[in-house]
Amino acid sequence: MGTADVIAIGTSFCTTCAMIPLILWFARKHELYDPLGPLKIHTAPTPRLGGIGITAGLLSGTIVSGGVAGSLAVYLSLLLVWVAGLIDDLFGLSPWVRLIIQATAGVLIWLAGWSAPVGHAGWNLLATVLLIVAFINAMNMLDGADGLAVGVSGIIALGFIFSTSHAGASVRPLEFSLVGCCIGFLMFNFPPAKIFMGDSGSTVLGFALAVLALNFYRQKPVNHVSALVPLLFAAVPLLDAVFAVMRRLRRGTSPFTGDREHSYDLLLQRGWSARKVAFCLYALTAALVTAGLFFNTF
After folding, report:
1. 3-state secondary structure of 294
2. Residue 200: exposure state from Cβ atoms within 10 A (0-12, 13-18, ≥19)
């Protein structure tokens, strides 16, 4: 870990930790709470604008430590995703509008030269957009239990740190900043959570991880094994999302219709505490990241 890495993780951590108390004060003053309801597991009003602190930490750490080499498209796309999530947190936003904005972010990333490992240009664009949309929404769906999405995101980010060479067009500042803001936010979001990240946090985490996955493909010759490494790192949120979509389609409902049958919901329903659920899925993610790092050697 070099000086720039320390600056990235330290800046993002400190920025996030400094922002969250201010966000808590603002949210309580204006009663900006996550609403209670049948799809919620919390029983007391809880602020939900933690995504502001996560994004501030992520951007500050990345920019101060050198930035994402070679592309302003990453920042523009990240802000698009964040603004859409924040609007949804505050006022509500149609799932289709959010999906269009996420796809637009994917197109911008592709135009800047980031792409999935698919040869034909048309299919390459489609695969890139689908990867970004999948990561964003998978992390959003995983954000249903205290400390879960942010902890899993931090572990996945560590996997990318150890799996890429950081030569050429590096996203090393983004990797370390993501770890820093995840640790910072986890201090307030670990069960029992004092604040929720909301869509403005979970979608930004998913977008950042998608960029790290695309960076992996940029820097490593892709074969049938290495192509699966980023998907293995993020298997916990991705598989949870795939099963959720299949479950809803099988029932004839919209994929955007929420339910309480995610992996973490089933564990909670078995009587597990929120902390036990978090540690279980942290451990599973760490195991999958370790397996991905092993396959990355081939």
Report:
1. helix
2. buried
Inter-residue long-range contacts of 39-48, CB under 8 Å, 24+ positions, other chains counted? 39/258, 39/259, 39/260, 41/144, 41/145, 41/260, 41/265, 41/268, 41/274, 42/193, 46/193, 46/194, 46/195, 46/196, 47/23, 47/194, 47/195, 47/196, 48/89, 48/195, 48/196, 48/197, 48/198
For residues 188 and 195, what is the distance between their CA atoms, to the nearest angstrom? 6
Answer whether 192's CB lies under 8 Å from 30's CB.
Answer: no
> Domain residues for 77?
64-171+186-295
Q: What is the pLDDT of residue 168?
A: 46
Specify if 242 maps to a domain. yes
* Nearest by Cα to 62 from 204, 199, 202: 204
Amino acid at 146: D
The answer to whether 197 and 50 are in contact (CB under 8 A) is yes
pLDDT for residue 278? 97
Structural domains of the chain, count: 1
Q: Which residue, 290, 240, 247, is CA-closest to 264?
A: 240
pTM of the model: 0.94
* 215/121 Cα distance (integer angstroms): 18
Ranges of beta strands (E only) in the chain are 33-34, 46-47
End-to-end CA separation in angstroms for the chain: 24
Residue 9 lies in a domain: no
Residue 40, domain member (yes or no): no
Q: How many Cα atoms sit within 13 Å of 259 on the Cβ side?
A: 19
Please report whether residue 226 resides in a domain: yes
- Do the beta carbons of residue 238 and residue 131 sit within 8 Å? no
* CA gap 234, 12 in Å, rounded: 22
From the list 5, 10, 16, the residue with the least C-alpha distance to 201 is 16
> For 22-41, how does the pLDDT look when each residue is reduced to its tens digit (9 = 90+)?
999 999 998 888 776 665 66
